[in-house]
Amino acid sequence: MGLTGLAIFKQLPKKNCKECGVATCMAFAMALAAGKASLDACPYVTDEAKEALDSAAAPPIKTVKVGVGEKEVVLGDETVLFRHDKTFFHPTGLGFLVDDNDAELDAKIDNIDGLQFDRVGQHYVVEFVTLNNASGDAAAFAAAAEKAAAKKAVILKADDPAVLSAALDKIAAEKPLIYAATADNYEAITEVAKKYEVPMAVYAEGLDALEDLVNKIVALGYKELVIDPGSRQTAQVLADMTQIRRLAVKKTFRPFGYPTITFTSEEDALDEAIQAVAYVAKYCSIVVMKNAIKGYVLPILSWRQNVFTDPQKPVAVEPKLMEIGAVTPDSPLYITTNFSLSYYSVEGEVEASRIPSYIIPIDTDGTSVLTSWAAGKFGGEQIAAAMKANDMDSKLNHKDVIIPGFVAVIAAKLKDETGWNVIVGPKEASGISGFAKANFA
Question: Strand 333-337 vs strand 122-125: parallel, antiparallel, or unpaired?
Answer without folding.
Answer: unpaired
